[in-house]
Amino acid sequence: MKNSGQVTLVLISVLFSSFQAIMDHDHFFTVDFLIFTTIAWLVGWQYDRARFLGKKACDSEESYRKLIDSLPNAVIIHQDNQVIYVNKEAVSMIGAKRKEEVIGTSIFNYLFPEYKERLLERLKQVKKEKLPLTNIEYKFIKLDGSVFVFEGSSMFITFGGKEAILSIGKDITERKEQTEQLLQKSEKLALLGQMAAGIAHEIRNPLTSIKGFIQLFKTEKHQVEYYDIVLSELDRINDIVGEFLVLAKPTAAVFAEKDVKELIKDVVTLINTQSILNNVQIFVEFEFDLPKISCEENQLKQVFLNLLKNAIEAMPNGGTIDVRVNVREEGKISIQIIDQGVGIPKERIPTLGEPFYTTKEKGTGLGLMTCYKIIESHNGQLTIDSEVNEGTTIEIILPTITQRVFSLS
């Protein structure tokens, strides 16, 4: 610490006392001289000390800035939501060319609107805690408008002699995308394993039955009912494999112009025997002058057949099924299948259509999944709404070939 201020003030005091002694023809070493010189020495010492501490603080802050600039992570220092300092990495991350483009702006300029409440709550926590907070994710917006994911931590600091908040983190958009891709692959592999296990289980049951009856053939006379059971079990295996093939390797279906009324009438006629045996009546209601649709006839019949079969099985004590077909809006036709069955709990509806997830005791879940896939291939939608002990409504929306003409008068 240099004593230039102290020396200067003492020297001024000596010169002033010398000048006064010469002019007044008085003694040089007086009480006033001692007092003034002592005061000059003390003031000079305080001045030199203040200069030293100020320079030390400046050097320290400069070193602090250099350290921040050299960090590989983005650093943003903000005060009252205004950016007061950023390092080179933060400038690059935001998409700016110079620090001046960012300093002085609000941190909310770069925050995705949905994350404002999260950041405000975070800033409250920062002021309460002395240690850095754990990392948290935000969506940020670059100057060019593109969105990226920022993961960072914040802490309370003193910067430039004032209280401020330092946030440090990095752009994790690429890492996030890679993680999501890995999760998707993992889910696909898990689904594949689940389907493989389900198929093995479903096919093993009829195979066990077939094996047992073949052993009976060796020891007993061939009874006709044995052959019927074996053929029935083989048909069951064939149905399971057929449903799986529709999912795994859809064929190139030939779409043709069809009347949806005729398709539904054919299916109702086909399933009518089963419905009567189960004390279920099917009522069909068509809107007049329905437009035709482009579809693969057999696939849509398979969908209607599966859904009506499910509706019948959902009413063990009998009841009615209403099938309503009408034009929902321009260019779209609605097919509703409404039953009075046991219904489905709300929490289970989102999982319907997954392979081997079913509400039926002996179901595979592949039937409904096949329905979803066929309707999707027809550029349509299948939705399910249900209330426990009240019934279920399944609606299929399909595009029509021609657009319906609405009168403007």
What does it look like?
The strands form 3 sheets. A 5-stranded antiparallel β-sheet has the order 2-1-5-4-3. It has a 5-stranded mixed β-sheet with strand order 7-9-10-12-11, covered by helices on one side. Mean pLDDT is 77; it is low at 356-364 and 403-409. Helix content is 49%, strand content 21%. Strand 1 and strand 2 form a beta hairpin. The protein has helices at 4-24, 31-70, 88-94, 116-128, 173-219, 224-248, 260-277, 297-313, 366-377, and strands spanning 74-79, 82-86, 136-141, 147-159, 162-171, 256-258, 280-286, 293-295, 319-329, 332-338, 381-387, 391-399. It is elongated. It is an alpha+beta fold and 409 residues long. The protein contains 9 helices and 12 strands. The chain has 4 domains: 4-67; 72-171, PAS domain (Beta-Lactamase, 2-Layer Sandwich); 176-248, Signal transduction histidine kinase, dimerisation/phosphotransfer (DHp) domain (Helix Hairpins, Orthogonal Bundle); 256-399, Heat Shock Protein 90 (2-Layer Sandwich), CATH 3.30.565.10.
Q: Any chance you could write out the topology, listing elements then pairs?
A:
Layout: H1 4-24, H2 31-70, E1 74-79, E2 82-86, H3 88-94, H4 116-128, E3 136-141, E4 147-159, E5 162-171, H5 173-219, H6 224-248, E6 256-258, H7 260-277, E7 280-286, E8 293-295, H8 297-313, E9 319-329, E10 332-338, H9 366-377, E11 381-387, E12 391-399
Parallel strand pairs: 7-9
Antiparallel strand pairs: 1-2, 1-5, 3-4, 4-5, 6-8, 9-10, 10-12, 11-12
Helix pairs in contact: 1-2, 5-6, 6-9, 7-8, 8-9
